[in-house]
Amino acid sequence: MRALLLVVAALALASPALADEGMPEGENPAQTAQALSLQALAILDWGLSHEEALEKLDAALEAEDKGGVDLRALRAAHEALEQEEVEKAHELLHGVFPSGVSHLAGVTYRPAVGVGEIVALIVGALVIALGAFGLMRRRRAERALA
Amino acid sequence: MDLPSGEPAGRTGTARRTWEWIDQRFGLSALAYPVPQHANALAYTLGGVTLGAFLLLVATGIYLAQLYDPTPTAAHSSIVDITESSFGSLVRSLHFWLSSIFIVTLTLHLLRTFATAAYKAPREGIWLSGTVLFLLAGGLLFTGTILKWDQEAQEAFGHNVEIADLLGIFGFWFSPEFTDSVSLLIRTYVAHVSILPLLLGGVVGVHLLLVKRLKISPLASGTPDEIDRRARDEVQLPFTTHLARIAYWTLLVLGIALVLSALRPAGIGPEGVEGIEITKPPWYFLWLYPLENWFGLDSLVVAPALLVAGLVLLPFLDRSRERDPRRRRSWIALAVLVVLAWAVLTVYGYVTVPVSHVEEMG
To answer: For A10-14, A25-29, B346-350, which range has the lowest pLDDT when averaged over its residues?
Structure first.
């Protein structure tokens, strides 16, 4: 019980330090250029509305995070789609991913490791130590009981 | 951790009187009933640790529920907002990692129960209620995946709708056609935060009552007669020592989840697009991914159904008195095969390029 109280106290002390310190207002960090381009490619792959694909490419060009994409190819694909050259845009979009294996969207945004994560790491290590210590104490106590 | 042991040893004065006051009103010393010493080994504590992880999931889930908006237009942005705040991101990451730890400890508990033949008479009810818990846990993981409403969630949601169609009349609740007034995402949220946890809590209650009534299974080593003899002679400890062990292991789980949350915070994908497929499911459902590639959508129903049917039938098929895994080689070999198949499918699902799935589906 004492150990649990310590954990709660540590987290409670830590929480004011973990208040908002994130991205600027209005940005959506999950919308990276790579993920949006991939969605646009999949929309064309599946023969869905090319207007929707164009919207995705618009957003990709405006995205804060433009890592993992060939910007020149992205702009060319965007231009082709604007001129309703869907086939050409589709072909160009395949060249947007330089590594050639980035057809994997999944998670595209992880918060950077900041103060919160460092506090969590320290509290986590302490909690593990408390748990391990408690288990050792229990083992001794049980041996005595048995 | 000083839990009631029935005898407030070492306590004097105010502490003793306080303990007696509480005990007279809440009967906590009744928790000090005897359990065999082996119940405190880690392998026999996994069920309790799973319950501990579930309680931590409930606690973090309550916090997240204050900030999450389950309407389809706002769900994704509310998760992004949670992720942008450091404390929100930490709690969300904890929820994410605890859910993984929860399914790991639950599966290990199931495997231990299988290995020690704890499903055998008279404990079939414990096993069957455990199987229901396993299913409910799967439901919680699935609905939790959908709530973040990113591309991966959108695809899981699409599968949900397709499976509802496939199930026909049995899938009506999972279908958007069930009602026009409430979106399926909101109903999924309701399932995640109330229906499934309440059901799980109820079945956990039954599961625990049965364990209390039928007692923890004996150490599975030797012939049935040797096992019975050893069970009669085994040292007994108060159940409160078992609870204390569970509490400390749960503390370790919390610590591990905190460290994982710090090193690898839970992420989020872009807002989902309906009708495309470019992501893979989370690791615990990854084994189904290649099956869907090879055999189509039906396999998402057939494979889990076969697994559950096997679990349900097990206590009625394996009816011998043998409990020692060394004396049940064919059953153990079968379990090893199933685990191997799961591992191979998971690894294969992990290395497969998702676009191949798109092409096949397209």
So the answer is: A10-14
